[in-house]
């Protein structure tokens, strides 16, 4: 008996394979996004010379008193603060796409996207600022309190630093830690030192602190950012223009007119005929050329200069003061900033103060003269408007009087349409 095969058998098998392949492709092309994290990661840029034992600790900010995170490397004894760099335009959406190259030692990490465009940079930080609130207390402002300060050890000052999370004490106990030696060196720079056997005792000194802060400001003033240079140096010292003309050499006098005589052959040339004039005299006609050089040079416009100009020494002092104010307002407690300013020599910014006093007077005079010009011009315009209105009022009043004296018949005749009619004077013309 011959075997029979149902129609469509192989076709149905191929259709099943195609359907299964499509389903697998659809399943592999579909990707479900994970839920948004409540604590998304942040991007930090750390220095290269930090060791694997570096830690991020939380300490009280010496300026504002709020908990702040710092990066500490125990092996090098270095402290770093985190500076946030954010894009200026927050309305434009930005993000970070992070990926790493695959190497033989370390496998490649998975790529990830960070939604926040902020960047945190670890910049060097002087640990002396962390010790200042413990060294100088706000209650010790008078000279008697300063004289009664006692010599204390480093451990005594460290106990006075607020350390609620115990991060600082844990960093000090790590093996191969150089933090204690670094803190001792920083204490010695602003304190009076007394050695008692193996122990070292410290007492804070305001004059030493002022010297350290002033040296930091001097170093910062050598290379200010362009934004601070433009806003706090150039604009702060720029004087108004008071119509002072710069000393310029007088313009050279115009050359005298020159007369040159040319031959008849030169006169016949087209180029010479355009610049020559023929003069007829009693002895005959002789071609003579009188070429004159007109004085076409315009007088130079007067160049105005500021009323006063800051000297290089004044500009340097302004940079120093700007840097000093930045350090005091960013890293020192408010009460200690006043102490540092009062400890500075009185003649430090004398030249700068004299220039700023003159500049303030000039700005006041310029503002007053500008107000006078504006008010004077406005007053002149008001007088012209009043005169124009007065003339208009008089003309309207004359027209009203004229209309009131006109008779009724004249008014009716004025309303008659005279288009196409001959005037009365046309009948009295000569034939």
UniProtKB/TrEMBL annotation:
Could you mention a single GO BP entry for this protein?
RNA catabolic process
Organism listed in the record = Podospora anserina (strain S / ATCC MYA-4624 / DSM 980 / FGSC 10383)
Keyword Zinc tagged: no
Biased composition range(s): Low complexity: 11-30, 259-303
**Keywords linked to the UniProt accession:** Nucleus
Boundaries of every Rnh202 triple barrel domain copy: 45-126
Ribonuclease H2 subunit B wHTH domain location is 129-339
One Gene Ontology cellular component annotation held by this UniProt entry: ribonuclease H2 complex
Q: What is this protein called?
A: Ribonuclease H2 subunit B
Name the CDD domains on file: RNase_H2-B
Reply yes or no: does the keyword Nucleus apply.
yes
Question: Where's it found, cell-wise?
Answer: Nucleus
Composition-biased stretches, type Polar residues, lie in 31-40
| Annotated region (Disordered), positions in chain | 1-43, 85-111, 243-303, 374-407
Q: Where is the composition biased (Basic and acidic residues)?
A: 388-402
**Compositional bias (Pro residues):** 248-258
Relate the protein's function as given in its record.
Non catalytic subunit of RNase H2, an endonuclease that specifically degrades the RNA of RNA:DNA hybrids. Participates in DNA replication, possibly by mediating the removal of lagging-strand Okazaki fragment RNA primers during DNA replication. Mediates the excision of single ribonucleotides from DNA:RNA duplexes.
